[in-house]
């Protein structure tokens, strides 16, 4: 609680340093379980309680996810702009987030104010399946949803019903029996043919797996891709990766670890993105699985580890890879993926193993493109460290990218003012045209939702008089930009004399 309070004080005192730092979009604020008075104080300081971030989460979402007191949440939802059916991340209303956290009191409060229970999110999940996938096992929650129009027979886009989804977190048969009595079969399978045992393997609860075996549930079955339960165990859940003991148990039942699925993937492909159990990797590699086997997309386990796993796993897989510079069908190598998504230490390691710093993807993008895509103004240190390593290796930031774009074009198209300012030190021609005849200012005029980026580029020497190949001016493009509609009077500074 003391640490959370320190975080709260820190954010309350420093949010004004950056207009993007709305304190309500910082999870640390909500982790401290703020009172209504603290929320109101933050609003008085200029923070917007209704603002959605880039991923469409707002303060109310985070309050629900962090189990803030319901009285505070209800106060937040009374604010104009936070209606009970407001669309947030992935097309979910607040009812989804309340169900995700098993907050039945808030669910009841929301329904009393008109919230709906018979809706789906942008991924086709209804609220019952969303709660089941989150591991909620309170039958009263499901009774409430069913009593307000939710469909027990609804499935996800992969064909999984609530009984299958909850199997990944079940510890006994109680919740399965509940769904069975509501009409869902114990023999349910998803669209690929995965049943209860496969979903339970995903959760990795060995005790529950043993209970399923004792009940006679089939264990050594294969889905439409030729995968057994080991593959579901390798996927794990959003919050948990399975350790070696789970795989030892499953293999002890006769499940074979050396299967290659119809898309060319092995267990190592599924594990290498997140699983950090070194002993498990060593065991599978010793059993014959290849760390450099490419699936049908050309992706190897090393590439997947380089994208998002720890250095220890990357190092292990690299030691069993003959060609560290293999590229997938998009032309991305392990180094490409590390530059785009992983830590500087992984980039340095791959460079030390002679990873090719001149690699170019199928679109014509170099490592410099992936470097700038990784830029986070809130955490610039990794970018700076990778930049130093790549520059030392010989990567040129001035090299043209896909479609003849400079890195300035890339940043302008993404409307990334912070990145444009960082790139200003690299002496790039701000008025250079890409292969379509557009300058950086042209792209910014077509994509930005405010004039700040445009004003900055002009201050750096961007020429408003340059026309596109269709003889359009920057002013013409800005006027056609729907995001700038209603701001015509503010665009006069774009007119050329």
TrEMBL record:
<feature type="repeat" description="ANK">
    <location>
        <begin position="90"/>
        <end position="122"/>
    </location>
</feature>
<keyword id="KW-0677">Repeat</keyword>
<feature type="repeat" description="ANK">
    <location>
        <begin position="123"/>
        <end position="157"/>
    </location>
</feature>
<dbReference type="InterPro" id="IPR036770">
    <property type="entry name" value="Ankyrin_rpt-contain_sf"/>
</dbReference>
<dbReference type="InterPro" id="IPR002110">
    <property type="entry name" value="Ankyrin_rpt"/>
</dbReference>
<feature type="repeat" description="ANK">
    <location>
        <begin position="436"/>
        <end position="469"/>
    </location>
</feature>
<keyword id="KW-0040">ANK repeat</keyword>
<feature type="repeat" description="ANK">
    <location>
        <begin position="403"/>
        <end position="435"/>
    </location>
</feature>
<protein>
    <submittedName>
        <fullName>Ankyrin repeat-containing protein</fullName>
    </submittedName>
</protein>
<feature type="repeat" description="ANK">
    <location>
        <begin position="330"/>
        <end position="362"/>
    </location>
</feature>
<dbReference type="Pfam" id="PF12796">
    <property type="entry name" value="Ank_2"/>
</dbReference>
<feature type="repeat" description="ANK">
    <location>
        <begin position="297"/>
        <end position="329"/>
    </location>
</feature>
């Amino acid at each position: 609680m003391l640490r959370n309070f320190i975080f709260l004080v820190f954010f309350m005192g420093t949010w004004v340093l950056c207009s993007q730092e709305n304190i309500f979009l910082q999870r640390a604020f909500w982790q401290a379980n703020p009172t209504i008075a603290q929320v109101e104080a933050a609003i008085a300081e200029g923070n917007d309680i209704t603002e959605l971030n880039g991923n469409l989460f707002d303060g109310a979402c985070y309050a629900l996810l962090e189990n803030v007191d319901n009285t505070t949440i209800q106060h937040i939802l009374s604010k104009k702009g936070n209606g009970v059916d407001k669309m947030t991340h992935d097309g979910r209303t607040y009812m989804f987030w309340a169900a995700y956290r098993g907050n039945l009191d808030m669910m009841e409060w929301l329904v009393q104010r008109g919230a709906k229970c018979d809706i789906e999110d942008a991924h086709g999940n209804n609220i019952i399946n969303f709660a089941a996938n989150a591991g909620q096992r309170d039958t009263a929650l499901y009774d409430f949803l069913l009593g307000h129009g939710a469909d027990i027979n609804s499935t996800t886009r992969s064909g999984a019903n609530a009984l299958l989804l909850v199997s990944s977190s079940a510890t006994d048969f109680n919740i399965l029996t509940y769904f069975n009595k509501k009409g869902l079969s114990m023999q349910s399978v998803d669209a690929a043919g995965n049943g209860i045992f496969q979903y339970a393997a995903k959760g990795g609860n060995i005790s529950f797996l043993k209970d399923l075996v004792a009940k006679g549930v089939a264990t050594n079955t294969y889905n439409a891709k030729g995968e057994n339960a080991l593959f579901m165990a390798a996927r794990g859940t959003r919050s948990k990766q399975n350790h070696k003991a789970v795989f030892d148990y499953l293999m002890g039942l006769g499940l074979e670890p050396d299967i290659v699925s119809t898309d060319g993937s092995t267990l190592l492909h599924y594990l290498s993105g997140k699983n950090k159990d070194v002993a498990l990797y060593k065991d599978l590699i010793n059993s014959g699985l290849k760390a450099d086997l490419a699936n049908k997309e050309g992706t190897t386990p090393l590439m997947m580890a380089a994208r998002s796993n720890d250095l220890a796993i990357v190092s292990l897989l690299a030691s069993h890879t003959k060609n560290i510079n293999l590229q997938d069908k998009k032309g991305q190598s392990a180094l490409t993926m590390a530059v785009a998504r992983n830590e500087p230490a992984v980039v340095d390691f791959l460079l030390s193993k002679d990873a090719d710093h001149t690699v170019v993807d199928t679109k014509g993008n170099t490592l410099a493109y992936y470097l700038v895509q990784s830029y986070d103004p809130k955490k610039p240190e990794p970018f700076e460290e990778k930049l130093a390593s790549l520059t030392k290796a010989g990567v040129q930031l001035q090299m043209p990218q896909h479609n003849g774009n400079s890195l300035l074009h890339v940043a302008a198209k993404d409307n990334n003012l912070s990145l444009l300012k960082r790139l200003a030190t690299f002496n790039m021609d701000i008025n250079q045209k890409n292969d379509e005849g557009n300058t950086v200012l042209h792209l910014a005029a077509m994509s930005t939702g405010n004039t700040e980026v445009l004003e900055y580029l002009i201050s750096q020497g961007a020429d408003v008089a340059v026309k596109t190949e269709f003889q359009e001016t920057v002013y013409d493009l800005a006027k056609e930009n729907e995001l700038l509609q209603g701001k015509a009077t503010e665009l006069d500074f774009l007119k050329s004399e």
